[in-house]
Amino acid sequence: MIKPALLIPASHLAKSPINVRKRTDPRADAELEASIAAHGLLQNLVGVPVSRKKGHYRITAGGRRLDAIHRLIAKGVLRPDHDVPVLVLSNTKDGREISLVENFERQALSPAEDCLAFRDLIEVEKLSPADIARRFGIEERFVLGRLRLANLADPIFAALEGEEITLDVAKAYATTADRGRQMAVWGSLRTGFSRDNVNEIRRALKSYSYRADDPRALLVGRDAYIAAGGRVEDEDLFSTATDERWIDTHILDDLATEKLAAQAEAIRQREGLREVRVVAAEHVPYMATFALQPLSGSIEPLTGEQEARKQEIEAEIAGIDLRARDETYEPEGDEAQRYVDLQAELRAITEREPVIDPGQKAFALGYVVLKPDGTPQIHHQLYLAPTADTGADESDDEDAEPADGLSGSGAAIDTAPAMSQRLREMLAMMKTELLAVHVASDPAFALDLGTFLMVERECRHMPCILPSDLYAAPAPQLLADFKPETAAAAEWRRLEEALDRSWTGYSGLEERYDAFCALGDEARAAWLGWAIARTLHAVPDGREGTDFLNHLGRKLGIDVAAWWRPTALTFFDKLTRPGILALFEEIGGKELRVRYSGSKKHDLAASAERLFGGDVVIEPEIQERALAWLPEQMRFGPAEGEADADDEVANADADMPVRSVDASDNTTDETLPRAA
Fold it and tell me: What's residue 518's pLDDT?
């Protein structure tokens, strides 16, 4: 039978020290205080009597509510003799358990339930968002956000209610009140990889609208946009910035294009161009220009005055550089700033923009784009204007003739037939196919070519464009901050230093290729081994690919124990103390474990490093086992005495030429066929 709660004055109540809730949240406490002030205490407290103080009780469940009541009394919101309903426990020993149950079993409303509850209060109770915020002690912005979520398109809200999407995903969709736009993005992303990507959802939604500070919006103007029927989105309740968004993108695009087109003719005449196209954006799309021929122009020679000034600057800079080589040199006055100014003046003289002469401009195509502030401007790059004879429309008319016998620069063109971009690409494909057949038919040539392509990409400090997709990029490191000094690491550095890099000094790609092919067999073989080896991934034991790496190690006959010994840094420091002692017992029995059992973790790891490295005087059989011991994750095959299923394969491949590496003498044996 449940006992009724007693009404007890708040002044007779105090929080019990056994209350399990210890932390407080000022914001949540303020919300609770506002709720009690508006609605009263809707749930009784739970308490136990205070011994030797009749009528007083310690609250074991509801301490936050009691604190809120005391604060309201102090503020004068409640009377000092305000009565509080308390369920009194007869057994004081149950207080801690009841406190835990009361807090542990409480479940907060889901976001969807919050949304519906707030909406009902507004629609049924006729409360305003400000009223709800005040009565529940929360921010009005939070209420407005929940109301925006309640207005989500039905399938999206149902997904939130059914916990198929997170609150953050729902907020991303609610950044717009346009349900049609919500459903368009929901339909395109819900089954894809980006269905839970908040940033991708926001990006997709915003692609249906423009910010008020977008160059197109600044060009057109708010009044013109609204006059044309454009709508403005409400502020984003889930962002810190209040970004106004114009949601009728087609209206804004049409207005911007129309306004730019009206100015294009004036710009064309001013610049002396054959054609001007309009792009209502800050940049010209790549696909609009990829088939066009850029006009590069030419740099005018320096005038006599400029050349003389250039020599004066270079002489003065050289003098400062010469003085700076003296370790005791200290700049005098503004000499350091003078040096910077001279460098800037020299760049202004020598690094000038190419000039396109009027004759070229007469056959040029330009694009009008927008500055960030919405001002139209001519794009910096000009192109040869396409005509019917240049095939820019990808026409396949083989009888097309040049229009006027002039090239883009105004000079007479040759008599070669004009080709469309499509025809050029068709010829390129057939030419490469012919080359590929011959490369595939000459393995030695292909081996040289493949090695060169891989190492050329990796040895160039500047990006290079190669007509091949062959790469030998280094594999990503599992732990970028852990690079221990091991025998293999030292050998890798020695191997890299021994590579013949004489071919890299040539300036042209063709010259570097010929120089590479002229290297000796061993030099080219070393580059091939380097290129392929650096692509191998580190795969933790048990993951896909581990078996293949182990298979390679067995085929190469790698003696891991000769190359790698466990050290404190690379192994023992990462084990627990009992784990290290277990290894001592594994190689030396319980007696060896007891011998080191009194050591601290740090000393134990150091002792293990010396023992497993052969630096401890100990029984020969124990030392032999210690020097042969390896963690399973460092083995390429089963431990000694276990069956190796690949033995027959290894034996069958024994007569194959392989590169062998010995940890003691670092000798190599490698062969590679050479192209004729």
Answer: 93
Q: In this structure, are residues 98 and 46 in contact, taking their beta carbons and an 8 Å threshold?
A: yes
List the beta bridge partners of residue 367: 277
How far is Cα 170 from Cα 155, in angstroms, rounded to an integer?
11
193: phi then psi, degrees, rounded to nearest 5: -65, -30
| Residue 115 to residues 35, 256, 345, 570, Cα–Cα distance (Å) | 18, 39, 64, 54
Whether the Cβ atoms of residue 421 and residue 394 lie closer than 8 Å to each other? yes
pLDDT band at 535 (very low <50, low <70, confident <90, very high): confident
Could you give the CA distance from residue 286 to residue 283 in angstroms, rounded to a whole number?
9
pTM beyond 0.85, yes or no: no
In one letter, which amino acid is 671? T
d(CA 486, CA 491) in angstroms, rounded, equals: 9
CA–CA separation, 380 and 390 (whole Å): 23
Q: Is 348 exposed, middle or buried (0-12, 13-18, 19+ CB in 10 A)?
A: exposed
User: Is-contact 395 420, C-beta < 8 A?
Assistant: yes
Eight-state DSSP code of residue 3:
P
Two structure tokens written together for 335: 């000499």
- Relative orientation angle of helices 129-136 and 140-150, to the nearest 10 degrees: 120
What pLDDT band is residue 648 in, cutting at 50, 70 and 90?
very low
If you write DSSP's letter for every residue of 139-189 in order, what string do you get? -HHHHHHHHHHHTS-HHHHHHHHTTSS-HHHHHHHTT---HHHHHHHHHHH
Residue 8 has pLDDT above 50, yes or no: yes
- Give the whole-angstrom CA distance, residue 594 versus residue 663: 35
With a CB cutoff of 8 Å and minimum separation 6, the contacts of 389 are 400, 401, 402, 403, 418
Residue 353, CA distances (Å) to 96, 197, 283 in order: 81, 44, 20
**Per-residue model confidence (pLDDT) at position 463:** 54
Decide: helix, strand or coil at residue 434. Answer: helix
311 burial (CB, 10 Å; 0-12 / 13-18 / 19+) is exposed
